Amino acid sequence: MRAASVPVNTRSYNERMTVHHQTFDVAVIGGGLVGKTAALALTQGGRRVALLAQTCASLPAGAAFDARVYALSASSQTLLERLRVWQALDLARLAPVYDMRVFGDAAAELHFSAFQASVSQLAWIAESSLIERALDAALRFQPNLTWIDSRAQGLEVKPDAASIGLANGSVLEADLVVGADGAHSWVRAQIGSKVDRRDYKQTGVVANFKAGRPHGDTAYQWFREGEIIALLPLPDGHVSLVWSAQTEHARELLELAPAQLAAEVERVTQSLLGPLECVTPAQGFPLALQTVDRLIAPRVALVGDAAHLIHPLAGQGMNLGLRDVDALADVIAKKEAFRDLGDTVLLRRYERARREDISALMIATDGLQKLFSVPGTVARAVRNTGMAFVGAQPLLKRWLVSAALG
Q1: What sign does the dihedral 301-158-42-142 (CA atoms) show?
Q2: Contact 266/97 with Cβ under 8 angstroms?
Q3: How far apart are CA 158 and CA 156, in angstroms?
Q4: Would you call 234 exposed, middle or buried from its count of C-beta atoms within 10 A (0-12, 13-18, 19+)?
Q5: What pLDDT band is residue 376 in, cutting at 50, 70 and 90?
Q6: Residue 72 gets which letter from DSSP?
Q7: For 280, what's the count of Cα atoms within 13 Å in the CB-facing half-sphere?
Q8: Which residues pair with 220 in a beta bridge?
């Protein structure tokens, strides 16, 4: 272990005492679900981990649900179970998806069934804050985890370690730095990874509603005039809206009063779930496709949105990030004893393990978004004919479900 020369102004998350070590095996920069899962997976793997992130914010007073939800695949569930996070979730706030119905912009419809695909469920719908609070609780009991409440503002990669300067004046050293700091990643900028970003000129509008009719644990999706509307099941007869709308239209939706927004969602979904009551304020986030030329650099690895950004139409962005974490943890667990954690040879194994999965999902989601954005009756006929063809192929649908499950 390298000697610590200057005390680091950090606090241990288990609140035993102020920690004076400034050397770690891994420093994870960035919180959220992916960063915290990475920190938990690596510290449970026996590594000394520093996590530069904030704790999960509380829900607004009176809020029934978090407006931001995720559709977690089987691979994400398996990872969270292995980390003993899934078992700590409040099951009453999770909703299974047993069926999915997708409506084209003509008469075509696709139906995916967990029963027909021989799986327990297609996905679980979970609030972002529900998972993050469980991660915070798990991290609290990790003796090798140090939670640092300061922002990174300098990164220097040296032959024997990466040196991280903090806003509070302290300096950390780590064998490996994991960048989990989102689409506008500071870590990614420090290593000079080139970013190719294409703005979809759309905004994802999210809100939750009480539905007048039972959703039957079914996820619904509509393609309408280049926009995509999804209603995802939540417990107790609630549904979560994810409306990928053109930016100007999204601005109009966000300005609507709750009752007006509910009425508009009822209209575009043809009142399939009956009258809707808006129970959380609508929020919006920009949509883009973003790729990077490399996921690694000496002593640095990128995960989650720092490594890729895809359209939310398939609900796979979070699952993709959690698979990054799983792959990185696996590569580190299997490393040769003589290799350093920051060894480029080791990190290239992680990059190779992730490239195909990331590329395939990017191509699929971007292709679907483009396909349903092309105007005209000919384009509409072609894509709806394609949907009808897929709907008539049970083996193809089963393969699509298997791919989505990860």
Answers
A1: negative
A2: no
A3: 6
A4: buried
A5: confident
A6: E
A7: 24
A8: 101, 231
- 393 pLDDT band, cuts 50/70/90, is low
Architecture of domain 11-57+133-196+288-368: 3-Layer(bba) Sandwich (3.50)
181 SS3 class: coil
- Domain 69-126+201-287+376-405 falls in which CATH fold? D-Amino Acid Oxidase; Chain A, domain 2 (3.30.9)
Instruction: Spell out the domain ranges in the chain.
Output: 11-57+133-196+288-368, 69-126+201-287+376-405
Q: 């490239």: which residue's tokens?
A: 355
Residue pLDDT, tens place only, 322-348? 999 999 999 999 999 999 999 999 999
Strands 49-52 and 23-29: parallel
The CA distance from 302 to 300, in Å, is 7
Q: Which residue has the tokens 């990874």?
A: 193
Q: Could you give the percent of the chain with pLDDT greater than 70?
A: 88
Are the C-beta atoms of 302 and 177 separated by less than 8 Å?
no
Which tokens hold the place of 324?
């990054």
Q: How far apart are CA 204 and CA 320, in angstroms?
A: 18
